[in-house]
């Protein structure tokens, strides 16, 4: 029996909606085919952007979208992607399959996508192969009210400046973004950011390229040398696949627990990174944005190895929910995150095939967690048994709880058990619960997933396994499941 104790009248910080951010790179079929099909496509679109995908993504209230990469960001020259599409130069996307990028999707199309989604733009500028002037002018082009870049923007059809809340200075500059040492990147960051200015009402959240996973030297050096000059630091961590890299739909129970154990590592990694941040920034001015995370499986058969197209099963959904729980619990330092990537790449929300589209199990987790956006995080103490051992050890149950402005409480619970039901008893301190609404997401098998022919195999349904008790709730968690419970005040 797992016991969860939730204090409903205590404030453990605000869960920024930006923790539920997304990422779209010029990689494989994420942008082209996935989000953008062009105006002449028979697939219903608005100015080239797929209507079905926008509609689906609106339901999960995407708070911000990171673009244009990823590794692509440090090869991207934004001026190639403005002006009449048929006059835009082409380039080779050397990192992702050496395919020709025709720049049909550029700055105006991205900002249009953000507007259609109702989401904030998070743009990652080019440090690896770009110039300071290029980055300076891009910020000006996007956000300045007047001047040569604003004139050029108006000439290209958008007279008003856009709002751009998030600005990243390079991506993985310790690897694909220039293979730099932290000492060198920290100096470059200071150089670049000196010319990244605010215009009018637009106030950029300046984001430095942070570490991968457990690289504390990068974090320490960067904060010490340049910490005064950024608001947030990115961090990347992918929890991988099964014990061996395998198709998303493959794997036995050992692989199941191996992957979830790695997903749970995010907690220790964040604790270690935050300890370094605390040493240099005890007041918590600088935040962490985990701007790439997720599972990374073998690519599907007959797909380009560099296009990173993978299926998505209930195992991915559980990896997502336990990771989101970790971010929620660290919400005082973690102000944002971006799962990789939105459509057709890695742990996607949506997969497309021609004019067909399906919602993945991971999409449904993001939908079930929407009530946590900008809600007050409630301390949630979980006493549970462990499953597996060593590199497969995981707690049986993970959970998050939050309080909305109207006082209602929202609890999400994950059962990591691959094969058994887990009984959970929740004490809700400070709330006299008189009703509840519950939904469950689970799968009949370890690899339950949705296909274009059977798109609704894994989706949330009403749940009658949660009942009110004298001081809270009792929940019978099916194997491999995520349960979301709303308790009105
Ligand atoms: O998301 C795929 C790639 O993973 C990104 O381009 C890069 O930043 C990371 O290594």
Describe this protein's structure.
The strands form seven sheets. The protein has an eight-stranded parallel beta barrel, surrounded by four helices. Strands 16-20-21-27-23-24 form a six-stranded antiparallel β-sheet, covered by helices on one side. It is built from nine helices and 27 strands. Strand 20 (397-403) and strand 21 (409-415) form a beta hairpin. Helix 3 packs across helix 4 (148-155), helix 6 (216-226) runs parallel beside helix 7 (253-280) and helix 8 (314-329) runs parallel beside helix 9 (361-368). It has two domains: 16-374, Alpha-Beta Barrel (TIM Barrel), CATH 3.20.20; 380-487, Sandwich (Immunoglobulin-like), CATH 2.60.40.1180. The mean pLDDT is 98. It has 489 residues and is α/β, with parallel strands linked by helices. The radius of gyration is 22 Å and the shape is globular. The structure holds alpha-L-arabinofuranose (AHR). The site of alpha-L-arabinofuranose (AHR) has 10 residues, from loops.
């Amino acid at each position: 029996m797992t016991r969860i104790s939730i204090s409903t009248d205590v404030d453990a910080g605000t869960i920024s909606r930006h923790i539920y951010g997304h990422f779209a790179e010029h990689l494989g079929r994420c942008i082209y085919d996935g989000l953008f099909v062009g105006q002449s496509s028979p697939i219903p679109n608005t100015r080239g952007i797929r209507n079905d995908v926008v509609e689906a993504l609106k339901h999960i209230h995407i708070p911000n979208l990171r673009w244009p990469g990823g590794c692509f960001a440090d090869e991207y020259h934004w001026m190639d992607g403005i002006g009449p599409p048929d006059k835009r130069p082409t380039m080779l996307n050397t990192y992702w399959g050496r395919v020709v990028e025709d720049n049909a999707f550029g700055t105006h199309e991205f900002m249009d996508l953000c507007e259609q989604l109702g989401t904030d733009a998070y743009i990652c500028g080019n440090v690896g192969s770009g110039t300071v002037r290029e980055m300076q002018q891009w910020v000006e082009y996007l956000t300045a009210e007047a001047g040569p870049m604003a004139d050029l923007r108006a000439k290209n059809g958008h007279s008003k400046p856009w709002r751009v809340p998030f600005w990243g200075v390079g991506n993985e500059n310790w690897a694909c973004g220039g293979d730099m040492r932290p000492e060198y990147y920290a100096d470059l960051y200071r150089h670049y950011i000196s010319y990244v200015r605010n215009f009018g009402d637009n106030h950029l959240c300046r984001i430095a390229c942070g570490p991968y996973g457990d690289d504390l030297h990068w974090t320490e050096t960067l904060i010490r040398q340049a910490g005064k000059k950024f608001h947030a630091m990115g961090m990347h961590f992918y929890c991988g696949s099964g014990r061996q890299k395998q198709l998303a739909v493959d794997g036995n129970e050992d692989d199941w627990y191996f992957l979830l154990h790695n997903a749970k590592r995010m907690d220790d990694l964040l604790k270690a990174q935050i300890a370094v941040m605390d040493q240099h920034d005890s007041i918590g001015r600088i935040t962490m944005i985990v701007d790439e995370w997720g599972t990374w499986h073998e690519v599907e058969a007959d797909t380009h190895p560099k296009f990173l197209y993978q299926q998505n099963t209930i195992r991915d959904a559980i990896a997502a929910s336990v990771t989101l729980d970790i971010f929620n619990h660290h919400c005082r330092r973690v102000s944002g995150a971006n799962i990789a990537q939105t459509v057709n790449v890695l742990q996607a929300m949506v997969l497309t095939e021609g004019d067909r589209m399906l919602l993945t199990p991971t999409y449904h987790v993001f939908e079930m967690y929407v009530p946590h956006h900008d809600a007050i995080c409630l301390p949630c103490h979980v006493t549970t048994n462990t499953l597996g051992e060593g590199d497969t050890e995981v707690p049986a149950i993970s959970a998050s709880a939050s309080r909305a402005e109207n006082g209602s409480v929202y609890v999400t619970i994950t059962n990591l058990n691959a094969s058994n039901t887990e009984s959970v008893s929740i004490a809700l301190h400070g709330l006299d619960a008189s009703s509840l609404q519950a939904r469950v997401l689970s799968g009949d098998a370890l690899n339950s997933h949705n296909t274009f022919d059977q798109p609704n195999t894994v989706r949330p349904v009403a749940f009658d396994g949660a009942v009110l008790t004298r001081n809270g709730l009792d929940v019978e968690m099916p194997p491999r499941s995520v349960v979301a419970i709303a308790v009105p005040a």
